[in-house]
Amino acid sequence: MIVLSIMNNKGGVSKTVTSINAAAYLSKKNRVLLIDFDAQANSTGATIESSVSHVGEWLTGEKSFQEVVVKYQNQFDVLPSGRPLQTYAKAIGSEDDYQFILKERIEEDKLNERYDCIVIDNAPSLTTLAYTTFIAATHILIPSTAEEFSIAGIPNILQTVANVQKRYNPGLKVVGIFFSKYHSSYRSRIDNDMVAGTKEAYGDLVLNTTIRNNVAIKEAMAYRTPVFAYAPNSAGAEDYEALMEEVITKL
Ligand SMILES: Nc1ncnc2c1ncn2[C@@H]1O[C@H](COP(=O)(O)OP(=O)(O)OP(=O)(O)O)[C@@H](O)[C@H]1O
Ligand SMILES: [Mg+2]
Q: Ligand 1 test: best mutation among 38, 129, 184, 218, most atoms within 8 Å of CB?
């Protein structure tokens, strides 16, 4: 089973959009679970809208997996989030060996028998919950925008991956870094320069695909529909298909 954690500690860099569209794309051929690990609950809002239960209740064992999981349009399953997740995350983080909690719950509930892929949407910081995904994940995918502050977070993530590989999860792999909300017009030379600089610094870790700034992506999220269904001929659908095909070659 692939466990793909979508991570950047910078906000607004397309983690949620990528999580939803990755789940949708992978679900064409695989059984997929999307975990919303952000108390902002954007992945939840953009798929099943809302839920009375949240993933924190499953992590702590208050509720069973079946009680929390929700189906999204026969495409994939969602472990939803909600505001209370923030309080749960604090409590979880204060327990000994908390970092293993996600991995243990996945194993106890034998999610590898139910799913081929788990996609995890994270909050915009290296929180307690995000850290548990480094232990449970097989792969990390790093979206960024071509902005200094988004790129500046990357060394931090890679350092955390290196520490986790050494101590807990030697098989953890970084799929790559990719750019989203990309403006390639002549007016945005800065975007091109930022991408070139990142390629110089990280070499092959930078994926070939970039996701253009495209209004269909924004609209699709608002209408709770993956971009492939909302606007199949849009630049957004084309780019996310290319990204996922590239990601699949690296899994
Ligand atoms: N390629 C794109 N083109 C146009 N709009 C985009 C694109 N990618 C993301 N957006 C929009 O940018 C906003 C932020 O995207 P998203 O919510 O996916 O980021 P995030 O990294 O999950 O943010 P947060 O850190 O707050 O969780 C959303 O309104 C989304 O619709
Ligand atoms: Mg988000």
A: 218
